[in-house]
Each structure stands twice: as structure tokens, then as C-alpha cells.
Write a sequence for this structure.
């Protein structure tokens, strides 16, 4: 796909004009994004009710609509933390990707695991990649740059973030402990089944379906069951494509278009980080199915 084009998820819709005045430099742009979003778990504020439900804003247009109802000012105008849109790493990333695409810069979201939030554990995470004309540059838009990081969050060196496909292949080879990859070391949401699902998230995001991290569809499962050959093949192709193999990227696009278990289709199951009952979402109608 052309990563300079908006997807249905990154499209700002009627709020596109708000992106016109955003900085074109990565430090300035990501500072604005951090002014718009507060992490639902790591922001230091406990949100409930309708405010907590903001984490389910699947589309950039919905995030911007919520921000404008609440603040009604230019995106770079400072917001108090409580007034920001409640979200997670995926939302910092998708807003940044949307802004870059609005400026004509190819950009995409990458699904995987970070090693820099806790010693000995790899948190699930979403980061930005943009094409600077010569190479893909990896950016963690959620992080405030500073000397407390051992790397530059706005041009990340290899190793700090690993794609889900990389991790899956390492896990399958017996080189990585799956229990050290997940949502949090205090939670049971980790391990091989979780990594397997994230390979499918990685594929969907790269194909323009930048879904929520708690959405579920098709080949996903809460158990490490069934034939894992499909995930092995997809992960191998994803790693090859990341290493510059254009034919692997073409095969992935064809597989995604032809295998009904790989894309989300019209309806997905939305789970809840809060433990609420799952709901079915009609993606075309952008509505909960009652």
C-alpha cells in the first residue's frame, strides 16, 4: 500500500484542517501529539465511565471530534492532562501517522514489544515509522525525549523495539521466553498465544487496518492452539519484508486480500482492558451491534 495515503482509521475526516498547522519536524509534531493524548494506564489519572470509553476511539476522526468538543482550540494549544483524549500507545502512534500522511510523508504503525519500560519484561507496544527519503525511521511518539532514555525516541536504534513477527520467530525457535512478552508483568496476558495474535495485528496495521489492541477476529485466539503454520509463514514474510524483500511484501498483501481469517472483515469482537463483556462492532457502520 501507499503509506502516504490515509486509511479509514488514520483519516482526520472533517477535522483535516486542524492538521494543517502542525509542525513538520518530528520533535515538534510528537510534542503536540503528547498534548492531545493521555495514557489510560500510565497517565497518572484514573478514568472511569465515558472518559474510560475514549480508549475505544478506533478512528482519528473520532479522537479529534472528542478533543474539539472538549477543548475547541488549535491542537498545539496546551491542554491540561485531564482534558486530553484517553488512549494508549496505539493512539499516540496513529495520530502521528495521520499528521505525517496529511503532510505527504509515508508513515505507518508498527506492532511489537518494547524492552525499555521494565527490566526483564517486554511490554506490548506500538510505534511510528516514517520514510525520510532514504530509510524508515522509528519513533516512539509517546515518549518525552530526554537523557533518562538510553536511546533516541525520535530515531530509535535497533533492538529496543522488536516487531511481533521477530518475537514470534524467536519464540518458536526456543530462543525467547514467551512469558516475558505481554501487557504487564503483573498480568496473565502474555505468552505464546498473545505473541501469535500480535503477529496478526502487525499484519493488519501494515495493510491499513489499524485496529485497537483489544480487538479480535479471524485467526486470533486466547489459546496457543490449532495449526500454527499460518502464523509461522506470515511472520517469516513480515520479517523478510522488513529486510527489504519487496516480493515478500507483495505476497503478504495477496494473502491478506485472499484469506478471510487475516483481515477483520465487517465485524470484529471488541474486548475490554477493564474486563467488561465483549461487544461486536460493525466496522462499516462504526457502531456496536446490539
Amino acid at each position: 500500500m501507499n503509506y502516504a495515503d490515509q486509511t479509514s482509521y488514520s483519516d482526520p475526516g472533517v477535522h483535516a484542517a486542524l492538521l494543517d498547522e502542525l509542525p513538520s519536524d518530528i520533535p515538534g509534531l510528537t510534542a503536540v501529539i503528547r498534548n492531545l493524548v493521555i495514557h489510560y494506564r500510565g497517565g497518572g489519572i484514573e478514568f472511569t465511565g465515558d472518559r474510560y470509553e475514549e480508549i475505544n476511539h478506533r478512528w482519528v476522526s473520532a479522537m479529534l471530534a472528542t478533543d474539539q468538543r472538549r477543548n475547541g482550540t488549535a491542537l498545539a494549544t496546551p491542554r491540561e492532562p485531564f482534558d486530553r483524549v484517553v488512549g494508549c500507545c496505539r493512539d499516540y502512534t496513529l495520530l502521528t501517522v495521520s499528521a505525517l500522511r496529511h503532510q505527504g510523508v509515508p508513515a505507518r504503525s508498527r506492532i511489537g514489544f518494547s524492552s525499555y519500560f521494565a527490566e526483564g519484561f517486554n511490554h506490548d507496544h506500538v510505534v511510528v515509522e516514517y520514510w525520510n527519503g532514504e530509510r524508515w525511521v522509528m519513533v516512539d511518539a509517546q515518549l518525552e525525549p530526554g537523557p533518562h532514555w538510553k536511546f533516541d525516541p525520535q530515531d530509535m536504534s535497533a533492538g529496543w523495539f522488536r516487531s511481533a513477527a521477530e518475537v514470534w520467530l524467536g519464540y518458536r525457535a526456543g530462543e525467547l521466553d514467551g512469558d516475558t512478552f505481554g501487557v504487564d508483568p503483573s498480568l496473565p496476558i502474555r505468552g505464546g498465544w498473545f505473541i501469535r495474535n500480535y503477529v496478526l495485528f502487525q499484519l493488519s496495521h501494515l495493510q491499513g487496518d489499524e485496529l485497537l489492541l483489544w480487538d479480535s477476529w479471524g485467526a486470533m485466539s486466547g489459546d496457543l492452539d490449532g495449526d500454527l503454520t499460518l502464523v509461522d509463514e506470515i511472520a517469516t514474510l513480515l520479517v523478510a519484508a522488513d529486510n527489504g524483500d519487496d516480493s515478500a511484501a507483495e505476497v503478504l498483501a495477496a494473502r491478506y486480500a485472499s484469506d478471510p481469517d487475516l483481515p477483520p472483515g465487517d465485524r470484529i469482537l471488541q474486548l475490554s482492558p477493564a474486563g467488561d463483556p465483549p461487544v461486536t462492532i460493525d466496522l462499516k457502520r462504526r457502531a456496536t451491534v446490539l
